[in-house]
Design brief:
The complex is a heterodimer of chains A (127) and B (870).
Chain A (H helix, E strand, L loop, with lengths): L1 H29 L5 H28 L7 H8 L3 H45 L1
Helix pairs in contact in A: 1-2, 2-3, 3-4
Chain B lengths: L2 H5 L2 H11 L10 H10 L8 H18 L4 H11 L3 H4 L2 H7 L2 H13 L7 H12 L3 H8 L2 H20 L11 H10 L3 H14 L6 H13 L9 H11 L5 H42 L4 H14 L2 H17 L4 H15 L6 H10 L4 H12 L3 H8 L1 H24 L1 H5 L5 H17 L2 H17 L3 H21 L1 H18 L4 H14 L4 H13 L2 H18 L1 H24 L3 H20 L4 H17 L16 H8 L5 H11 L2 H16 L7 H10 L1 H13 L2 H14 L2 H10 L2 H10 L11 H11 L9 H25 L7 H11 L8 H8 L2 H7 L16
Helix pairs in contact in B: 2-4, 2-5, 2-12, 3-10, 4-5, 4-10, 4-11, 5-8, 5-10, 5-13, 7-10, 8-13, 9-10, 11-14, 12-14, 13-14, 16-17, 16-18, 16-19, 16-20, 16-22, 16-23, 17-18, 17-20, 17-21, 18-20, 18-22, 19-20, 19-21, 19-23, 19-25, 20-23, 21-23, 22-26, 22-27, 23-25, 23-26, 23-27, 25-26, 25-27, ...
The chains are: A mainly alpha (127), B mainly alpha (870).
């Protein structure tokens, strides 16, 4: 239990650090100051929201009778927030493309290898 | 067996015991001790049976005193009768418990052994073996000298106590003294046994003094008593249950019948002749009736009987005439009579006669009640009204109306009484109308009423109108009150509104008068006042119309009435229009009746909004006009329709069809409202009721439905309404809608046309329901104007809900929303957690029926008959 608590603390600290960095960038852009309490509040909120997300994602995955959380589950989670939803959708599409490309490459590679092998074999045979 | 003992019954023994034994303090021995002692003394040999008995009795008394009243008396009994009581009984139990059962058993056993009976000897001997176990053993023997003394001590006071305590039937307290008394009387042992038995039964309660008494009395008469409870007791019991029915009813029925017959006979002949006669006789006839209610009825009766057709008619006429002026009572009577008549007969021209008859028939006290009020108020107007030839019609109508009204009035009675029937006729008509509507009586009557009303108005524009109006209002009010106080108020409001709007003809004057009258009287004072105000302003016609409307409203308000009302109102409207044409104030009348009706409905639905009512009234009139009576002139204000649906909603179920028809008429504008309401109602249904949605749609089509439901919802408690709505909805399918549509005249349809665009989700849920729920959860007061905001919120909520559910279903690659989708939703909403499973929530919040649906249980859907537990 302590371990979990310690783990949690570390995670929170990590989140807090990241949020702080982000806020720094934003404040630089807006040329406004962001107080520490604000950062702490944002960090805490983000942390709890992660918890909620995780539970929801798990519930969605189970709802779809799957054991793995997929992009669809994520999309379902974010459907209410339009901006985020759109963003996620774009990203997912890109990922899908990438995946496809990767697959194609692999196929090509596989094909090339096969041809090479064939050639090698032929060569060998020839030789 | 004992030679001597055998012959002696337990009673005798007891008596002996009592006499012989010296009073002693109760022995506080435990039953077991007693038992032991008894057992030890198995054989009563050493003791005489009497002593044994005494012991037993004492013990029992003692025990009963210590343990409970019941056991003790039994014990002595059992002891007495106890030949082998313990045999069968689980004696140890009985000993401790001293149950009636044990005692009875003992008695029974006693009986069987008749000869042995109480004498302790034989019983004791027999009981010996049993004694070990049974209390009987104790009883039989246990009596020791000490015990006996206890018995004596206890028995005497007990008896007295018992006597003091009267109980219901067969309970009998065991009292030795009583016992002895009876015993003396009883020549037989058997009888004693029976007695004892009874007593044993009775002994359960010490406090059954009555029983003791009964025993004594029974003994005399009922030596042959069986185990049944004495007759006296039964009677006594029944007496309480008996209802003291007033004789009035009887009279009224008879009188009514007479009246009816008379009317029938007189029928068409009388209309005018009678009418005229009435005029002349107005004063005289009326004067007779200025008596109290009872007198009035009597008077009414007499004239009927004595008078022939003519005179009766005259009387009626007079009544009518006088009604407004003199006899407020008469009107109600008349109305009531009319109502009755109406019911019995379709409007008859003889209405006049009928009216008279109606009056005459002391139909009910109720009838009287109104009449009294009538008399009290101003009989004037009525006379005036009657004067017209139309009066005849009116009379008829009025009679009918009156009859109806009276009926209504009866219900309202008190109210009526208060309300002065200035416009008896009017009131009658209106009342009749209302009643008709309510009672779904003959429409004709209404017509008659209308006519009468109209006529009356025409004739006695001012005075009569006023009176009539007052009466009508009163009547209406009364009607309203009877049914819904709120409704009444509304009605009045409506009336007022109507009146105001109507103002066509000397309404003002009349109204004022009526208003005044009303105010004075009824409980509905509020309503009346309203009416009065309105009435004054409005014309007689208006009043009538208003009254009618109010009546209508009242009717509508009343859910029960509503169903009828719808039909009636529609019919009524027709009549009204007819009358309107006839009378000068045709336009006004038309308007009024229409509005009246509508307003009434509104009134029902919108209690708090008097102003609205006024508007509604106007609108109602208009709507009414639109309704089947196209002839009517659109009086009203456009606002009318909206309120109507509300009213309609109040009684969606009852009036579903009728209402729809009427509503359809009224509410073009209301359709939306109704629809929205219906929608709301429908929406309100939990998802489980999704199947109902289709129905809702159907219903939505019908404004009426909406209106009905809305009204209904507003009136009845939310949950009830919900149920009703559902049931109505479910029951109402397209066919009903179609029916309504079909029944509704063209104008209705036309009216609907413009409004028809049904806005789905205009009102997600019925306002009343929403407000009630909201107020329940809100700690503070809630204003009703928050409803629109709540409505929006609800709309969004449900939309989002449906959206989420759809997303979940799609996520699971399904096309149908299932329960698991809902579970997921609840989890997201936070209702469900890892610790609270769905079933818990189901059990917590849903009613049993739903629970069974959702949670499969072994018995769900099956008929399981539990084992009989013995």
């Amino acid at each position: 239990m302590d371990e979990d608590a310690a783990q949690k603390q570390r995670l929170k600290a990590a989140v807090h650090y990241t949020v702080g960095r982000l806020c720094q960038d934003i404040s630089a852009d807006c040329e406004k100051q962001i107080t520490k309490q604000t950062i702490a509040a944002i960090a805490e909120t983000a942390f709890r929201q992660c918890d909620i997300f995780a539970k929801d994602l798990e519930a969605f995955a189970r709802h779809a009778k799957r054991h793995t959380v997929t992009v669809d589950d994520v999309k379902l989670t974010a459907r209410r927030t339009t901006a985020l939803y759109n963003y996620i959708q774009q990203k997912s599409e890109e990922l899908a493309l990438n995946n496809q490309e990767l697959k194609e490459k692999r196929k090509k590679n596989a094909a090339k290898r096969k041809s090479k092998d064939m050639e090698v074999e032929e060569n060998e045979l020839e030789d | 067996m004992d030679s001597t003992e055998d012959d002696i019954s337990a009673r005798v023994l007891l008596r002996r015991v009592l006499h012989t034994e010296l009073p002693k303090s109760p022995v506080t021995r435990s039953a077991t001790n007693v038992r032991r002692s008894m057992r030890l003394k198995n054989t009563p040999g050493p003791e005489s049976p009497g002593s044994a008995l005494r012991h037993r009795l004492k013990k029992k008394l003692h025990e009963s005193a210590s343990l409970s009243p019941l056991p003790s008396p039994k014990r002595p009994r059992s002891a007495l009768a106890n030949t082998n009581p313990p045999v069968t009984a689980p004696s140890p139990v009985y000993d401790e418990d001293m149950t009636t059962r044990g005692l009875l058993r003992g008695i029974i056993q006693m009986e069987t052994e008749a000869s042995l009976l109480m004498s302790g000897q034989p019983a004791l001997q027999e009981s010996e073996p049993n004694q070990a176990e049974s209390s009987a053993g104790e009883r039989t023997e246990g009596l020791s000298g000490v015990e006996l003394s206890d018995l004596t001590l206890n028995t005497e006071p007990l008896t007295q106590v018992v006597r003091g305590l009267s109980r219901k039937k067969p309970q009998r307290v065991f009292s030795v003294s009583a016992f002895e008394e009876q015993f003396d009387q009883l020549p037989d042992n058997t009888e004693d046994i029976s007695r004892v038995f009874h007593k044993g039964d009775v002994s359960q309660e010490k406090g059954d003094a009555s029983q003791v008494l009964d025993l004594s009395s029974d003994s005399k008469s009922g030596l042959n008593l069986t185990l049944k409870t004495p007759f006296v007791e039964k009677r006594i019991e029944r007496a309480g249950l008996q209802r003291k029915v007033s004789n009035r009813r009887l009279q009224s029925v008879d009188a009514f019948d007479e009246a009816v017959q008379r009317c029938l006979e007189q029928g068409p002949n009388q209309d005018h002749s009678v009418f005229q006669d009435g005029k002349t006789l107005e004063d005289s006839s009326w004067q007779k009736f200025t008596l109290g209610l009872s007198d009035v009825t009597e008077l009414y009766v007499q004239p009927k009987k004595d008078d022939t057709m003519g005179p009766s008619a005259e009387n009626e006429r007079e009544h009518e005439l006088e009604r407004p002026s003199e006899i407020p009572d008469s009107e109600p009577l008349i109305q009531e009579e009319k109502d009755h008549e109406l019911e019995s007969q379709d409007e008859e021209e003889v209405v006049h006669s009928s009216q008279d008859d109606v009056y005459l028939t002391p139909e009910d006290d109720i009838v009287l009640a109104p009449t009294q009020a009538m008399t009290e108020s101003l009989p004037e107007s009525h006379d005036m009204e009657l004067q017209d030839g139309e009066f005849v019609e009116e009379v008829e109508i009025g009679n009918v109306v009156e009859i109806e009204y009276e009926n209504v009035v009866e219900t309202e009675d008190q109210e009526v009484v208060e309300i002065e029937h200035d416009s008896v006729e009017e009131v009658e008509d209106e009342n009749v109308e209302d009643e008709n509507v309510e009672e779904a009586e003959d429409e004709n009557v209404e017509e008659a009423e209308d006519e009468n009303v109209e006529e009356v108005e025409d004739e006695n524009v001012e005075v009569e109108n006023e009176n009539v109006e007052v009466e009508n209002e009163n009547v209406e009010d009364e009607n309203v009150e009877v049914e819904n106080e709120n409704v009444e108020v509304e009605n009045e409001n409506v009336e007022e509104v109507e009146d105001e709007n109507v103002e066509d003809e000397n309404v003002e004057e009349v109204d004022d008068e009526n208003v005044e009258d009303e105010k004075v009287e009824d409980e509905n004072v509020e309503v009346e006042n309203e009416n009065v105000e309105d009435e004054k302003v409005e014309d007689e016609n208006a009043e009538e119309v208003d009254d009618e409307k109010v009546e209508d409203e009242n009717v509508e308000d009343e859910e029960v009435v509503e169903a009828e009302h719808n039909i009636d109102t529609s019919q009524y409207l027709v009549q009204i229009t007819r009358r309107a044409h006839r009378s000068e104030g045709g336009g006004a009348v038309l308007g009024i009746p229409g509005t009246a009706r509508v307003t009434k409905s509104f009134g029902a639905g919108l209690n708090p909004r008097e102003k609205d009512l006024l508007d509604f009234v106007d609108e109602g009139r208009e709507s009414l006009q639109d309704i089947p009576d196209e002839e009517r002139e659109p009086l009203g204000s456009p606002e009318f329709p909206p309120p109507h649906p509300a009213a309609e909603l109040s009684t969606p179920e009852q009036r579903s069809q009728q209402h729809e028809a009427s509503v359809a008429e009224d509410d073009d504008a209301q359709e939306e409202l109704n629809q929205s309401e219906e929608e709301e109602l429908m929406d309100s249904e939990p998802p489980n009721h999704s199947p109902q949605f289709p129905q809702e749609e159907e219903e939505e089509e019908d404004d009426d439905d909406d209106a009905l439901s809305a009204e209904l919802s507003m009136k009845t408690p939310a949950f009830v309404r919900q149920k009703r709505v559902f049931t109505s909805r479910t029951t109402q399918s397209t066919p009903t809608v179609l029916k309504e549509v079909n029944t509704g005249p063209a104008p209705q349809v036309a009216k609907r046309g413009p409004r028809q665009k049904r806005q789905t989700g205009v009102n997600v849920l019925p306002k009343s329901y929403v407000m009630s729920v909201f107020k329940h959860f809100a700690k503070t007061k809630v204003a009703s104007d928050v409803y629109p905001a709540i409505n929006e919120i609800l709309k969004k909520y449900f939309e989002r809900l449906a959206d989420d559910l759809e997303a979940y279903a799609t996520h699971a690659k399904r096309k149908t929303i299932e329960v698991e989708d809902f579970e997921l939703l609840m989890r997201r909403q936070g209702f469900l957690t890892d610790t609270t499973p769905v079933n818990i929530l189901i059990e917590k919040y849903l009613p049993m029926e739903y629970r069974k649906l959702l949670i499969p249980v072994a018995t769900s859907g099956n008929k399981v008959i539990p084992k009989q537990r013995r």
